[in-house]
Amino acid sequence: MKNLLAPGAVALATFTAGAALAEPGVPPLIYGVQVEQLEYRFGENDEELLVWDFDAMVGNDELKLVFRSEAEMETSSNDFETLENQLRLQKPISDFFDAAVGVHASTPTDGPDRYNLVVGVKGLAPQWFEIDADLYLSEHPFGRFEAEYEALLTNRLILTPSLEVNMPFKDDTEAGQAAGGATIEIGARLSYDLVDRAISPYVGVNYEKSFGGTADLTEAAGGQSDNLSLVFGTRLFF
Prior knowledge:
mainly beta; 14 strands; globular
């Protein structure tokens, strides 16, 4: 069961988006796929990863069903260092934010399977920062905070800095996580809009570092507690 959802992640990037005509008084059905990251990462020690992060959505302005997938796959072995899939319902709670509730599955190739209830908020903070803050609730709870900002250098050239923080609330030694041992990921990607905002290839850098007990567990298992990568990829919106 671990990798059954993985092939669908790439296939979904070819879907098209739009809105169906609705009857008067009925919100129109909207649907689409937003691929925030589809990239190769070239890291230290010749590590090469294929990475994706996308949302597929269907619904209306009042309620949306969202399938989210994130993965890091080693290109040499096709093993997943991380593979996470979520099914979420999102409902507006203000002009700029949605509340979200759903289920989350983490199924890496060599790691333990973990399943969570997820609750959170997603939207635009002041100064147009895109924010995603979630709690993952199970026997091994953790929190995740993501922030991203698009700085328009020209009408087509965009610099996108990003930050992601994962904070375990309880020890999960099998998964290499220690309570309070945060992992941060900082990136910067320079993209160029080829076709409006639908296709935007980019280059950039990505830095990941673990702290505290999480770093100790990673190093004890023979891994690195930090890693700097050069990335090449594209953003897609259909």
